[in-house]
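Data deposition worksheet. Section B asks for the primary sequence of the deposited chain exactly as it was used as input, without tags or linkers unless they were present during the calculation. Section C holds the resulting structure in token form. Section D is free text for depositor observations; keep each observation to a single sentence. Incomplete worksheets are returned to the depositor.
Section A, Depositor: J.P.
Section B:
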Amino acid sequence: MKFSPRRKFRGRRRHSRRLLSLQPQPGPLPLALLNQYHYFHRRLGLGIWHWHGRLPPRQIRQRAATHLLNTFFAWEHNLRSRSEPYVLTLWLVSPDFAHESEVVVSIREEREHYQRMSREHDSTGPALPPEYQQLPGAALLTWKTRRWEILLDASDYPTGWPAWGLAKNHHEYVAEDGSPYLVVQTGWAWVGQRS
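Section C:
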């Protein structure tokens, strides 16, 4: 079979039907890895929820978000038996939903980092979209909106910052070692957490 860049990606409907037929089971929480690294995350990314585009169709996003909500509540149940404090958050990201949305748990020194990240809030951002608000369990969490930003390294752009980055909401950042970066807002993230 000859492949061409003009050929359409095949199997999109079949892949959609398969994902919609799945029962969103929670992802396991490996406590040994959590104790070793002090954080663990289950990202949609690759695996059964992988989607070639950044933003899958609404029904697929809802099913995948239900999977993340189920994972959140299952992990919360597992963590209640631990005497150690923890931070458990659910991140829904747009437009990079398929690659960046995740559930994160952190303990010990990583706990402070994730607590600080989950407290950041942008009141000018949009509220959690209705397609996620109506999901079972979503109302049990407190949702905060924050900017979803990426860092562009100056060494990757020797002739200057890219026009697409400068066209979006951005600011320059200089790291402790003096390296310049361009911080570009590419979308929004909604961070869900128990109050």
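Section D:
The chain has seven helices and six strands.
The mean pLDDT is 87.
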